[in-house]
Amino acid sequence: MLSPGEPFFRPIQVGYFILNRYLFGLHPLGWNIVSLAIHTLNLFLIIELIKLLYPKGKGLPFLSGLIFAAHFIHTEPIFWTSAATTLLVATFLILSLISYLKNSHILSLIFFVLALLSKEDGVIIPFVLLVIIIHQGSPFRAALPYFTLLGLYLLIRLICKSPFHPVHYQIQIHPLIFIKNLTFLFSGLTVWVDYRLLRTIWYGASSVGHMLSLISSHLEIVFSLILSWLLFLITLIFGTRKERILILLIIFSFLPFLFLVGSGERFLYIPSIWFSLLIGMLLLRIPPFGRMITAGCLLLYFAIFSIGNSYRWIMAGRTSGEIIGFLARIEKKMEEGERIIFINPPEDIDGAWVFRNGLEFIDELYFAKKVEVIPVKSRPIPPLKKGDRIIIWERRNDGNKSNQNRCPGRG
User: Fold this and answer.
1) How far apart are CA 157 and CA 381, in angstroms?
2) What is this structure's pTM?
3) Which keywords, in A-to-Z order, does the entry hold (predicted)?
């Protein structure tokens, strides 16, 4: 079932996509509703998990649940179809922890296996569970079955020569990569910054000096970094044991990505569970009236950017759907081996619901024939061959929503 060199082994993801494609076709609304339903399920599961972890924490499940529900970091896994696997693995992770805390150890192990079959992020479950076991004062051997299963999973992947990261990502054991990703973890959870800008600065810099120069030229990035590091360092130094444990859980939930060259908002979905719990704990330190005001301001802050992000994703999804529909109609009139030269593709579809990695992947996902799509932004148009179709995308300049002037032509 595993092909040599295949970067993913996610049978549950495959089944999920097949079912959604059967039910909704290429209409993004149906896909997004299912993702939102899974996210809502996760919210209720998180509240149940917090009740089990802190049975005496009155108000903690409710406060933490509100923070999790409103957090702006969740828009990517909800609106980007491919990132739905993050929602699925989070569901199985929470169910595994809940089952363990209810002493249903066999069921907990089953959910762990389902998490591994959903997405590779499931490898964090034994480590997260180990932190919880230490926090509860339970014997370490309780985590042994989980690490045994993890070892078997990794062995199977190794035997099948299946790497653990996609081909468009690279793992690099380097202190700078570690610091970059750890800072992205803290800042991404704490302060909203346009991820496209952050990604350009974080991973587009050629050196440390260049990166610092880019950071200093954007005050919102500087503010984000200072505030996020202060929050976590002050909590780590002056916080309670429970709060320090939560910081440890945040970091352990990010383990698969600490040395990844490149990042994404979806990687913060599982860490945001523990972040929401941490914020809930800190809010409970404040007297009731001040707590209500502070919580209200935080929720308003998270909700404003969450709604703004959601709108951007919905518009990008609509645009990408139009492009796919148009290119699919063109493809039906073409012959095998011909090409579509797509000139001036819109920037705002980067991260849309289907082709996050670029228009060039449309032919692999949606075309029946071997018709290649070549997006052309700034580079020269490639030499045309017989049968090529040229598509030019233009925007209206009348202040209304984007429009397109489609100009098919033959090479």
Assistant:
1) 41
2) 0.84
3) Membrane, Repeat, TPR repeat, Transmembrane, Transmembrane helix
